[in-house]
Amino acid sequence: MDPGSHLHNDDGALFEDVACYRRLIGRLLYLTTTRPDITFPVQQLSQFLSKPTLCHFRAAQRVLHYLKGAPGQGLFFSRKSSLQLHGYSDSDWAGCPDTRRSISGYCFFLGDSLITWCSKKQTTIARSSSEAEYRALASVTCELPWLCYLLDDLKINCKELPVLYCDNKSVLHIAANPVFHERTNLEIDCHVVREKVSAGLMKLLPLSSVNQIADLFTKALAPQPFSHLIDKLRLINIYQS
């Protein structure tokens, strides 16, 4: 997507063929199962199914042009990958121009292999970037036990402790210090994260914003950082030598 534009409800003239737009977005949603690199734009475009405009349709066409440039690109799962879970959590504060709700994004790797990812608008408005980041982190923390149970059912024994990465220093301080949460309105989310960390079920580690892979699922990025993070997703183009 164009990082300089933000899609919203009143984006000009309506697109006449609403059914065509809905079919297109439905196919793109299906494609996100194997193409995590289009997850954020498809999440954005799917919000306008009731009243799409020409601007929304052009943005959808831009996604098609991107896909046409690399039709053989997909996830690569190495058989030599380790069995440790790595999670990345991020948010874009007040990223929705219509509701001012933040966009949460996360992904999980099993070793070097990407196994799950998500881009979703938060259910309530966050009053600070730290609040938005912590809500995103809490949702990832709740996702982690489900993944662990799934791996147990598949008889996959993960000996190493799962690791969650966050690039927000204030969130890491709140998670590490039980006093800080009293200054926020995130008490329940704070307890959710702290309980998992204190119980030794996961580790919470800092990460530079440049290497925050979940950034892909929260906002439109410029070409250079986009390409940098795409490489970290382990996407491989089968038509390139």
Brief digest:
The chain has 241 residues and is of the alpha/beta class.
Give an overview of the whole structure:
By secondary structure, the chain is an alpha/beta fold. The protein has 2 domains: 10-69, no CATH class; 85-217, Ribonuclease H-like superfamily/Ribonuclease H (Nucleotidyltransferase, domain 5, 2-Layer Sandwich), CATH 3.30.420.10. Helices cover 38% and strands 16% of the residues. It has 7 helices and 7 strands; from the N terminus they run αααββββαβααβαβ. The chain has a 5-stranded mixed β-sheet. Strands 1-7 form a two-stranded antiparallel ribbon. A hairpin with a 2-residue loop joins strand 3 (103-110) and strand 4 (113-121). The longest helix has 25 residues, at 129-153. The mean pLDDT is 89.
